[in-house]
Amino acid sequence: KGIAPKIFEGSDGVGGRIKTDKEDGFLFDQGFQVLLTAYPEAQKYLDFDALDLHFFEPGAIIYGPNGMYKVEDPLRKPTRAINALLSPVGTLADKWKMWRLTNLVKSKSIDEIFKSPSISTAEYLNRWGFSEKMITNFLQPFFSGIFLENKLSTSSRIFEFVFKMFTHGNAAIPAKGMQAIPEQLRGKLKKTTIEFGKKVSSISKKKLLFADGSSSNFDTLIIATHPSQITPDYKSVNEFQKTVNLYFDIPVAKGEAFIGLFPASGNLINNCCIVSNVASGYAPDGHSLISASLVGIPEMEEKDMIQQAKEELSVTFSLPADDIKLLRSYVIPHALPLVVEPSIELDAQQIQLSDGVFLAGDYLMNGSLNAAMASGRICANTVLKYLENH
């Protein structure tokens, strides 16, 4: 379109909440994140082959108080249908309902999902009649790990959307970490310049004021972070879900690429994953990297939190706690925006903050990588129309 944008980025790299740190041959995503390959925006803009995606096994391993067992998807892995039927995760009636639910979300378009009535996921599951056993053992810990809240108060629209994405695609991570995704998008920007370490402190008319005391004039501005950080007058309705992500070097043999769930109510850890089982490049040879995620930020000293997490992993993997070495700890207070009425559409009124100032971000639609990309696309098209008329 002949436009050469300039990006001012407050941090030292692209990606926003998608960041990957590297140290001593390990890769640490800041917060346990995955790419759902069925995301429409991801399919539109990302080169999956170039990302060298590595896939999780469909299903999960349940680390319950009565032992460990797998939950497998017979629709994705037909050879494991018998195992799925015999799994103690729920009743046979539960498994029949899961089959019906899977077919329902497969048949509904994304537009239909987001136009359907919004109730809490907890109420949605109750209306389907799932047993307490099925909800407690699998559905609650699995989706709590995605929604980052334990009550399943998240809208049923998001539940159906995420469920649909899992049925139509895979959960994956790039070989070089999740930050490879925004880095790939950056590589497609041929006319865009980026200045890193330029944290915006405020906006004054048509001027950006930076934390280092410098400034820059603009004609048109897109705020691609939450605007409450730089425009105090913005009436924010967003709260954020919180999480803690712990990484450990753990001496276990290479195994299957499953997500592990901890359904017991007394556990600190909600889910874990030996990410080096999914993508071997996440750990150097001879090491296994495990990511353990907590829902929310517990009110306890960090050292006590880490020790309890180590003890839970010690019991789970039958290892001495001293053999589990902490590598990284990420406390993330703004992990996922809470959107009360999630949508997949935006109108100009939602996007335009003031004359020449526009908004982009998943907080406007629903908390997901897909929504972040969609809001950017919609905002860019809105700005192009604005420029045509000014």
**Strand order within the widest sheet?**
7-6-15-16-17-14-18
Q: What is the CATH superfamily label of the largest domain?
A: Protoporphyrinogen oxidase, mitochondrial, domain 2
CATH fold-level topology of the largest domain: Polyamine Oxidase, Chain A, domain 2
Distinct helical segment count: 13
Q: Indicate the percent of residues in helices.
A: 25-40%
Q: What is the end-to-end distance?
A: 15 Å
Low-confidence stretches: none
Global structural class:
alpha+beta
Shape verdict = globular
Number of domains: 3
Taking the sheet with the most strands, its summary is:
7 strands, mixed
CATH class of the largest domain: Alpha Beta
Radius of gyration using CA atoms only: 22 Å
- The pLDDT mean sits at 92
% residues in beta strands? 15-25%
CATH architecture term of the largest domain? Alpha-Beta Complex
Let me know the number of strands. 20
